[in-house]
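Structure (tokenized):
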């Protein structure tokens, strides 16, 4: 299966412009994405999109994620969680 950003955006409200704006605002050089298991196959597509627009290094947390309180010790400038309520 080919993973394309357009297909993902048809299914989910990702707020990618908001993510790019927050990365630029915070001047983050390294970003960690936390994704629910169902979105992890789309991770590389999201990494490419963000890196191309922001010039930062983007990594994907491949461990389990059980909510906003489950933040890994990543030493990244910014952690972005998909699929969770704001807190």
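Design, position by position:
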């Amino acid at each position: 299966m080919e993973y394309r950003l357009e297909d993902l955006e048809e299914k989910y409200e990702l707020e990618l412009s908001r993510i790019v704006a927050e990365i630029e605002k915070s001047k983050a050089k390294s970003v960690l994405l936390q994704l629910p298991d169902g979105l992890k196959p789309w991770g590389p597509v999201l990494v490419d999109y963000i890196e191309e627009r922001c010039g930062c290094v983007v990594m994907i947390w491949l461990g389990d994620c059980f909510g906003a309180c489950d933040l890994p010790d990543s030493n990244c400038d910014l952690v972005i969680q998909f699929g969770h309520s704001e807190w």
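Reviewer-requested clarification: The mean pLDDT is 88. The two ends are 34 Å apart (CA to CA).
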